[in-house]
Design a protein that fits this description.
Chain lengths: 298, 298
């Protein structure tokens, strides 16, 4: 299948690698606003050739948009303007509501499948791309009733060839859930990095930075180019999630300050329950091997 | 060297493994309040034999105490009561001030070296022990002027045989610094786990939990047995660190709420600086190969 990837960074580059390996993509065309990234991606073999946006999306089977979400608001309508009637378009943005709204009344709306693969690292650019990034992770597909069933089927097949499980929900539900499990942890890591860096004796602190600190602030390395627009587009739900988090931090601090040991023990033990959940003892988890997918839309 | 390890969990067990491998310990005696842990540790070969506390510390060269910090307040004075004049004692607790204070006027105070290896995982118990846990990590030695130089030299040699770099500081400085780089990340992870679990639609959230969420809440799996007493003993500095963190989170939330994009970009970019620091571009980092250690005491 002729596949065009717009944005050859961590996500777009990793998808290109896996789709080529699985045989899903037989011809890979790359589009990138950065000439440097484009030539780097070509050099390391992520794509077969580089095209302009216009030439890259005309006469292709599938367009995958993997660029910062603020740029999607400009690029997605343009792509829908340019494609033929049978081309399928998807995007990999971490927010969905504003992006979906931006093409709500477009004549090619049914060619577009809003998607969000729940995977990534704190690194960016073509060199950060690697095989298997999406294996056993979840992809969210939104508002499927607004897309043509052939296009939905093609994107499902693509995601399954990446090794992903699929969850279906509305764009609004995806933004709400993602605020808590992805955007909040990033905001928390940014604030933690800033809090620790604000301390005067930072030399001591940095010499001592242990594994625990490293894993907790890992996400604070994530690029502003990608994350600032995510926070802007999902402002309402990220603010809600930050309010819930701040409330729990204040509760933790107060119970430490008040020497309320019974409550402190209860708070830690409740937090410990996350272990069972994260280690797959969660009956709600859906396995790809079973080809079961999950519908969250009410 | 005849070495007694009190507490055969992640830390004590991992030290036993490495000291045996390096040849530093030729005879390893284990002491553990839990019969189950003791027999498990013996079975997997962490120690050569199990003794009671009394029999384990009499006539040994080195005693390493690796138990929850509340238990240290009881066990450390008892160990100092029992040992002969030439035995060296150290402990691996994450807090130091209260522990040091508990034996300040003990006649064997100079036999004791307060230490804190900045390493660990979210797992506990003898089965969690593994080789190389301390390699290239930092160990803090406190108040060295209050210990006999022979005892300090032996513990330095032991830590270097574990592959650790050593930083010297007062017990109070260690508690302050450790609050920020270790205790705060744990408190933050506990609160994040609780915040996310408090959401009604947790099934969605847990299905979606991505790599970013996993690494940020990893520490929330850490045991209450170990961490509750750490928070109790380092209450003052952990509360201080939580206040700084909450302030930065509120700043982040407010600037999101107020749509202050310029400030938001600045906050993210400042947080990004943590990358350079954590990836060893920090000129303050001290390498073990050079056998250089670092003095922080003012």
């Amino acid at each position: 299948m002729k596949t065009t990837v717009i944005g050859l960074g961590l996500i777009g580059g990793s998808i290109a690698r896996d789709l080529r390996k699985s045989g899903f993509a037989t011809e890979l065309i790359g589009v990138d606003a950065s000439e440097e990234h484009a030539s780097e991606a070509l050099k390391i073999g992520l794509v077969d050739r580089i095209e302009t946006l216009e030439n890259g999306v005309i006469d292709t089977d599938l367009v995958i948009i993997a660029i910062p979400v603020n740029m999607e608001l400009i690029v997605l309508p343009k792509v829908l303007d340019l494609i033929g009637s049978s081309t399928t378009v998807t995007d990999m943005g971490s927010t969905k509501k504003q992006i979906v709204d931006s093409v709500r009344n477009h004549k090619r709306r049914r060619n577009y499948i809003p998607a969000h693969p729940m995977s990534g690292t704190e690194n960016s650019g073509p060199a950060a791309a690697h095989e298997g990034l999406f294996q056993n992770k979840i992809a969210i597909l939104c508002d499927q009733e607004d897309s043509g069933p052939q296009h939905v089927a093609l994107i499902e097949k693509m995601l399954q060839s990446l090794g992903m499980d699929i969850a279906y929900m509305t764009a609004d539900e995806q933004d709400h859930s993602t605020a808590f499990v992805s955007h909040l942890p990033h905001a928390a890591a940014y604030a933690l990095a800033n809090a620790v860096q604000a301390k005067a004796d930072r030399n001591i602190i940095f010499d001592l930075a242990s594994g625990g600190f490293r894993s907790t602030v890992r996400l604070a390395k994530s690029s502003a180019t990608m994350w600032h627009p995510i926070f802007q587009q999902n402002r309402k739900y990220v603010v809600e999630s930050l309010n819930v988090y701040i409330k729990h931090l204040i509760e933790f601090r107060d119970c430490m300050q008040d020497e309320d040991d019974e409550k402190m023990a209860a708070l830690i033990q409740n937090a410990n329950k996350i272990r069972g959940v994260l280690e797959g003892q969660n009956p709600h988890f859906v396995k790809n091997e079973q080809k079961i997918t999950k519908l969250y839309t009410k």
